[in-house]
C-alpha cells in the first residue's frame, strides 16, 4: 500500500469534514472524479460546488483503504 497516497486521502477527508474549501481545492487533482451509488462528479470544481451546497454535516466511520500505485480506494460508513 502506498502510504503517501493514503495519507493524502486522509488529509483530504479531514478538510472535507471541516468544509475547508481552500484545503480541498489544493488537494484535489485537476482530473479528479468520483462515482458512488448516489452521484457522479467529473471535476474538482463540480465537487467543490456540491460541497458548498451541502446542507448538512456528516462524519465518516469504519474507513478502510486499498492502494495500488497512485490509485486509492476507500470505503466508509457515513454518520449524519
Structure description:
By secondary structure, the protein is of the alpha+beta class. 40% of the residues lie in helices and 31% in strands. The chain contains 3 helices and 4 strands; from the N terminus they run ααββαββ. The protein has helices at 3-17, 21-27, 44-53; strands at 34-36, 39-41, 59-68, 71-79. Strands 1-2 form a two-stranded antiparallel ribbon. Strands 3-4 form a two-stranded antiparallel ribbon. β1 and β2 form a beta hairpin. The termini are far apart.
Q: What are the main properties of this structure?
A:
globular, two-stranded antiparallel sheet, 40% helix, two-stranded antiparallel ribbon, 80 residues, single chain, alpha+beta
Q: What does the radius of gyration come to?
A: 12 Å
Task: Give the N-terminus to C-terminus distance in angstroms.
Answer: 30 Å
Total of helices: 3
Instruction: Label the structural class.
Output: alpha+beta
Outline the secondary-structure elements.
Elements (H helix, E strand, L loop, with lengths): L2 H15 L3 H7 L6 E3 L2 E3 L2 H10 L5 E10 L2 E9 L1
Antiparallel strand pairs: 1-2, 3-4
Helix pairs in contact: 1-2
In brief:
The protein is of the alpha+beta class. The chain has 3 helices and 4 strands. The chain is globular, with a radius of gyration of 12 Å.
Amino acid at each position: 500500500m502506498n502510504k503517501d497516497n493514503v495519507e493524502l486521502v486522509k488529509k483530504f477527508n479531514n478538510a472535507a469534514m471541516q468544509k475547508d474549501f481552500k484545503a480541498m481545492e489544493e488537494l484535489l487533482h485537476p482530473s479528479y472524479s468520483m462515482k458512488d451509488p448516489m452521484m457522479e462528479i467529473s471535476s474538482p470544481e463540480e465537487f467543490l460546488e456540491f460541497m458548498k451546497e451541502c446542507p448538512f454535516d456528516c462524519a465518516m466511520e469504519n474507513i478502510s483503504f486499498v492502494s495500488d500505485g497512485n490509485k486509492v480506494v476507500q470505503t466508509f460508513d457515513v454518520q449524519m
